[in-house]
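Hello Y.,

Per our agreement to keep a running log of every chain we model this quarter, I'm adding this entry. I've kept the format consistent with earlier entries: sequence first, then predicted structure.
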Amino acid sequence: MLNQRQQRFVSAYLENGGNVYQACIAAGYSTNYAKARGHELLENVGIKQAIDQFNQQLMERTKVTIERVVAEIARLAFTDITQVVSWGNEGLKLKPSSEIPADHRAAITEITETPGKYGTRLTVKLYNKQTSLDQLMKHWKRLRDAGRCN
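Predicted structure for the entry above:
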């Protein structure tokens, strides 16, 4: 059973995305010892259970699974720009949305048209491929180490 201050710590910790120092201050602990106290609080079995329970319920409510996360990262990592745009003598052209596969549409972060001296400039930005590949490799290594993939 958690006391009120511990409950406030858990709530603040979950609300601020896991900032231990800020959660301690919000729970009423001294700013001088907030960082050290926060790490002690995270070792408390009741606090660990409360955080784990909240996270588990959140994952169930939002239907977030490791499989969905890895699939989304893979989608971003393996996007092919030629599925989104074409280019040639007339410049860069965005394909009609009906011609862009859903997996590739999901990887688009920005489309801008900027008028200029020589016509309109089209800019299409996709999620960062290298970052997505790095994230995918981290998951792959974790699964490999757990004996769940080759």
